[in-house]
């Protein structure tokens, strides 16, 4: 099972090949055909077994609520309880939640993959905690909308939960291709380089 430690390289947005987010990204990218998003029913727990503890799946309800449909054990450990069915914002400081929802808009439109650098403050008896949250859009089945599948890579143990994060930086990768290129574009390992969407500094 992957440990979840990403180190400084991962926090710069270039996760090491063994990080949970890198395993998820390779699987997601391998399911793509040209610009088409993978379908949610193509994602199986068996294919993601090596990083399933760090995985999460996020849906937006018709009323606008953004909920966790699934949260792995490492994600739950950050909060100290099962987060399945809870708002994704439960992982974030109150002041970060408006920025979170704004960043999610293009992802739920299927236009952007996201990588967020996160930080949880030091407490009286607990060290600071940094993390990287990757979110990738999945096409729905039938009339269902886009779902996001993600990975929370932690740069250390989540001591004394609940830990809540602020967003330090958001990187976005545009998933659209120009008309005429989409049909003949093969699946690729990486894709276009990410661009800075938002930064605290």
Describe the protein's topology.
Layout: H1 7-11, H2 20-30, E1 55-60, E2 66-71, H3 73-79, H4 97-108, E3 112-120, E4 129-138, E5 147-154, E6 166-174, E7 195-199
Short key terms for the protein model shown above:
Beta-Lactamase, seven-stranded antiparallel beta sheet, single chain, alpha+beta, 201 residues, disordered N terminus
Shape from CA axes? globular
Mean pLDDT, nearest integer? 83
CATH architecture of the domain at 52-177 and 196-201: 2-Layer Sandwich
| Gyration radius over CA | 16 Å
CATH class of the domain at 52-177 and 196-201: Alpha Beta
Cα(first) to Cα(last) distance is 35 Å
CATH topology of the domain at 52-177 and 196-201: Beta-Lactamase
Tell me the helix content.
10-25%
User: Which residue ranges are poorly predicted, with pLDDT under 50 across at least 5 consecutive positions?
Assistant: 1-14, 177-189
The order of strands across the largest sheet is 2-1-5-4-3-6-7
Q: How many DSSP helices?
A: 4
Pfam family, one: PAS_5
Organism: Paragemmobacter kunshanensis
Protein name: PAS domain-containing protein
């Amino acid at each position: 099972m992957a440990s979840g430690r990403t180190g400084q390289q991962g926090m710069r947005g270039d996760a090491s090949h063994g990080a949970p987010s890198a395993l998820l990204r390779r699987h997601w990218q391998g399911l793509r055909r040209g610009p088409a998003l993978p379908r949610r029913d193509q994602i199986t727990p068996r294919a993601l077994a090596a990083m399933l503890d760090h995985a999460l799946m996020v849906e937006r309800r018709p009323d606008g609520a953004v909920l966790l449909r699934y949260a792995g054990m490492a994600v739950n450990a950050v909060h100290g309880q099962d987060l399945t069915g809870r708002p994704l914002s439960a992982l974030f400081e109150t002041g970060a939640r408006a920025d979170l929802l704004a960043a999610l808009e293009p992802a739920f439109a299927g236009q952007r993959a996201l990588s967020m650098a996160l930080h949880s403050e030091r407490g009286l008896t607990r060290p600071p905690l940094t993390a990287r949250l990757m979110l990738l859009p999945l096409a729905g089945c039938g009339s269902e909308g886009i779902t996001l599948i993600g990975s929370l890579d932690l740069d250390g143990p989540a001591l004394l939960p609940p830990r809540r994060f602020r967003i330090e930086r958001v990187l976005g990768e545009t998933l659209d291709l120009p008309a005429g290129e989409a049909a003949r574009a093969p699946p690729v390992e990486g894709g276009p380089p990410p661009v800075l969407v938002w930064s605290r500094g």
